[in-house]
Amino acid sequence: MAFHWQISNSSTCSLLLTQWNQTQPDLDFDAAACLFRFMLPSDTVVYVLMVVFLALSFLSVVVNGSTLFGLGHSRDLSWEPRFALLKNLILNDLLLTFTQSPTVLHCLLNRRTLAFDSWCLVQYFTGTVCILCTLLTLTFMALERYVYVCHAIRYLQIITLQRLRSIIGLIWIISLAIAVVNMVLLHMGRGTFGEATAGMLCEPDTVERHMGFPRAAAIFRKLIGVVFILGCILSYSFSYIRMYQEACNAVEPFNCVNSRARKTVLFYGSMFVVQLVPCWIKIASDGLWEMEGTVSMVISPALASSETPVPHRALPSNIAGALHISLLALILVPPCINPLIYGIRNREVREAVLRFCQLRHRIRLIPLGGGGLSAQGNRGK
């Protein structure tokens, strides 16, 4: 006969898991609530995380949405290659926000970790595509600026409209293809659907654990991640270093070095590092995975000796839990700052966004009937 236990704190969770494995294998309790309480024992931290996620989600939707519609309604900017790439980056950010944020907020509201089900795989697949698209888009945005500054005479010959469309299409094709291959490799293992995960997002480590640790998928994911991140860093560094050198060669009056170029390169370089903070956390999580052995979460000796499958019995270590919470808090930071860095910081984009906002405001002020318009016409006469 099974018994249901109410989860009250992390120590109770650990005790129940131990009893579940050793003395009472038929003990019934809410594993998702137990794992959530183990990671976040304080309700204050839960409330803070909820406020942070709501604020970041709202900011991401507002800033990305207004910038995207502002660029779309501007005939002067929509055709330029850098703004076409910016719109592609904004679409990735919005897609990431709409898939990641509701998942985390649902877990925080219900005080439960995420269940490993079909939505978990959809969220993982979408997140993989968005991250790869973002890295590739940032790479081509840096290369586009390099061509614009260092090869200005041949800029229109090198970056044509047809090539731009091909680049954007290639970004999505490569990202989707890699994500599909990764999912195929994951399904080579045996999935344990329906179990509670040790997190509030389906991270790669979580999915691989519940799919039976397919080694090929893990190697493929880490290799692709390292190649994409290094490629993005190298292209970004090469492009902005060359642009800085070109700017230094342009001497201002009285033989003063162009300090504006130095500030611009420093700004974009520091913002690029901030954008990659979630990637650094994921790399640290992968390193923790390797150090802890076959799983990324520490399992007590009592649980490890059980014959029950590992994914259902794993508890997060302090370091792994801290990395997971940090990743949750920072995953929506790049979608919030990307439009500010590459869009609204530009005067032309700011003016386009303001014109779009003013147009929306005027449309709201127009009455449904025709009396208001006719009255304005009579006053004009």
Helix content: over 70%
Rounded mean pLDDT is 76
One letter per element, helices H and strands E, the order comes to EHEHHHHHHHHHHHHHHH
How many angstroms does the end-to-end distance come to?
87 Å
Q: How many strand segments? A: 2
Low-confidence segments, given as residue ranges, are 1-8, 19-28, 293-315, 367-381
Measured on Cα atoms, how large is the radius of gyration?
Answer: 25 Å
Question: Could you list some keywords that capture this structure?
Answer:
16 helices, mainly alpha, disordered N terminus, 73% helix
Describe it:
The protein has 381 residues and is mostly helical. The chain is built from 16 helices and two strands. It has helices at residues 10-22, 31-39, 43-72, 81-110, 118-150, 155-158, 161-186, 204-210, 215-249, 259-275, 277-292, 301-304, 318-330, 333-344, 347-365, 371-380, and strands at residues 4-5, 28-29. A two-stranded parallel ribbon has the order 1-2. Helix 1 (10-22) links the parallel strand 1 and strand 2. Helix 3 (43-72) runs antiparallel to helix 4 (81-110), helix 3 (43-72) runs parallel beside helix 14 (333-344) and helix 9 (215-249) packs antiparallel against helix 10 (259-275). The longest helix has 35 residues, at 215-249. It is globular, with a radius of gyration of 25 Å. The chain starts with a strand and ends with a helix. The relative contact order is 0.13.
